[in-house]
Specification:
- This protein is of the alpha/beta class.
- It has one domain: TIM Barrel.
- The protein contains 7 helices and 8 strands; from the N terminus they run ββααβαβαβααβαββ.
- An 8-stranded mixed sheet has the order 1-2-3-4-5-6-7-8, with helices on one face.
- The relative contact order is 0.14.
């Protein structure tokens, strides 16, 4: 991708792996671009963004992002901050600058950087959040290879109690999660007071997942799923 690279006082660190110039599916009802931040504190077995996850640095600075966005004023409505894990980076100054340009901001997150996300919410810098519920607590470390369930849990409660526009989603690989696991997630969500749509994303075999896993060998019986939440498949 050819984006003119500029520098100013905001940030000259190359923390952005790539920029997707246009998407109409990643932010509900909005035309957007995606800013992919390098690095992640998880190593989810099914993750297909391993180049981004393992990257120690990126190809663009946040200044490059802003210069690109200036060319998209009145053409795009929003910016999706994704990764990797976008919230592992200090996003406050970038989000303020994006807002000044007139764009909405959506954050894709695993929810484990609670303080960062809380600060962004308190400063009214986020318009939408997509929170990944990786697995029920008993399988969380096994699938994510992290010990961050408690941090994720705090973020989930924060969103339910203090933030309106967000969604919870789970990536499903039938060999990693079964109907009992999904039902456990649904039960946890409803117990906490979550009453929105719950999205399940089917694993897509790109041949490049972190654990090198392919299509599942186990079947998944959707008829066994709880109806306590409206489940939408993607």
């Amino acid at each position: 991708m050819n984006i003119k690279k500029e520098s100013n006082s905001l940030n000259t660190k190359k923390s952005v792996f790539d920029i997707t110039k246009f998407t109409h599916v990643d932010y509900p009802d909005h035309l957007a671009c995606i800013v992919w931040f390098s690095g992640c504190n998880m190593r989810c077995d099914y993750c297909y963004n391993k180049e981004i996850v393992f990257a120690k640095s990126g190809n663009y600075t946040t200044n490059d992002v802003l210069e690109f966005l200036k060319t998209r004023i009145n053409l795009l409505e929003a910016v999706v901050l994704s990764g990797g894990e976008a919230s592992s980076h200090d996003l406050v100054d970038l989000c303020k600058a994006i807002k000044k340009l007139g764009f909405k901001i959506k954050l894709d997150t695993n929810g484990t950087y609670f303080s960062q996300i809380k600060k962004l919410i308190e400063l009214n810098l986020l318009d939408f959040v997509a929170l990944d519920y990786k697995a029920p607590e008993n399988k969380f470390t096994q699938i994510t290879h992290s010990n961050k369930y408690n941090d994720f849990s705090k973020t989930l409660d924060l969103l339910i109690n203090e933030f309106k526009d967000f969604e919870v989603r789970t990536t499903l690989h039938n060999d990693l999660l079964n109907t009992d696991d999904i039902n456990a997630i649904v039960k946890d969500l409803t117990t906490r007071g979550y009453n929105k749509n719950y999205y399940i994303q089917r694993f897509q075999d790109t041949g490049e997942s972190i654990a090198g896993i392919g299509l599942a060998s186990n079947s998944f019986d959707e008829s066994l799923l709880s109806n306590d939440l409206n489940i939408i498949w993607r």
